[in-house]
């Protein structure tokens, strides 16, 4: 992974660079530790809150014996680390930074517990953030009814029990498991993927206020998301999903567009971290059941 935080229980994360780690830790214990005569570097995973080991920080050689560059990265310590914290195997097993899983699978083997509780908490407490990220992926404003329909599909399938679903990819998990959705309640941005799709439509076009019919036909315009792909990249894991837009008329379906788009895991993670951090500040100032006098 290419992100870290300093302490368990805190919100937020930082991009992992050598200089950034130096400034964040001041090169002090517990992030710098002497182990058997060698200095080891530690921090905390921003998602699962487990200890992580920083690899190839301050190494003497920047290349291996075969002349290849040694990348700076973090990996889970898979054990307790003094001064950093205890290791939680359940949280590690479901951490998308440790081993992201494609939503294309059907592994519904997660049991109710800490991870499921975390997902349900995000669904309840951060619905507006989920709504925003879904609209961002679709390049459209979405209505409350459309958002409700997406949530209903996820709930019906017990999406929180699928191992590929995490708090970090939750907006995209909701979209992936939403099935085929009507574009009623979807108001695309100008010059977006929708404009390219509707250029091939016989029944719909982009109007001043969004999608409009070209005639009084009974055609339906729908979308769904598929093909969640995860690839290694210099920055960690690059993830994409494919947005498919179709129209249906008299029982015949016509695919107007199928386009792969990047998903913004880190943006959503940072959004949640900031919201929780600000909430903690406000709750500290105005604790529950405080007398207003």
TrEMBL record:
What name does the UniProt record give this protein?
Answer: Uncharacterized protein
């Amino acid at each position: 992974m290419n992100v870290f935080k300093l302490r368990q229980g805190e919100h937020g994360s930082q991009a992992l660079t050598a200089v950034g780690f130096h400034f964040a830790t001041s090169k002090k214990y517990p992030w710098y530790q002497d182990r058997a005569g060698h200095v080891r570097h530690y921090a905390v995973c921003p998602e699962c809150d487990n200890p992580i080991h920083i690899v190839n920080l301050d190494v003497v050689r920047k290349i291996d014996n075969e002349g290849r560059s040694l990348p700076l990265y973090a990996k889970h310590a898979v054990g307790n680390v003094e001064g950093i914290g205890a290791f939680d195997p359940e949280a590690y097993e479901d951490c998308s930074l440790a081993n992201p899983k494609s939503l294309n699978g059907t592994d519904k083997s997660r049991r109710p517990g800490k991870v499921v509780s975390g997902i349900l908490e995000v669904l309840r407490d951060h619905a507006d953030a989920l709504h925003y990220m879904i609209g961002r992926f679709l390049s459209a404003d979405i209505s409350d009814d459309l958002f409700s329909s997406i949530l209903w599909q996820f709930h019906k399938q017990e999406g929180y029990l699928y191992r590929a679903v995490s708090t970090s990819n939750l907006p995209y998990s909701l979209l992936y498991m939403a099935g085929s959705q009507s574009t009623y309640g979807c108001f695309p941005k100008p010059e977006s993927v929708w404009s390219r799709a509707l250029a091939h439509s016989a029944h719909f076009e982009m109007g001043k206020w969004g999608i409009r019919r070209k005639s009084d036909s009974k055609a339906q315009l729908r979308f769904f998301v598929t093909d969640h792909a995860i690839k290694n990249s210099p920055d960690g894991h690059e993830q994409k999903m494919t947005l498919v837009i179709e129209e249906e008329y008299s029982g015949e379906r016509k695919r107007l567009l199928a386009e792969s788009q990047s998903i913004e895991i880190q943006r959503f993670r940072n959004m949640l971290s900031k919201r929780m951090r600000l909430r903690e500040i406000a709750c500290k100032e105005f604790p529950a059941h405080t007398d207003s006098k």
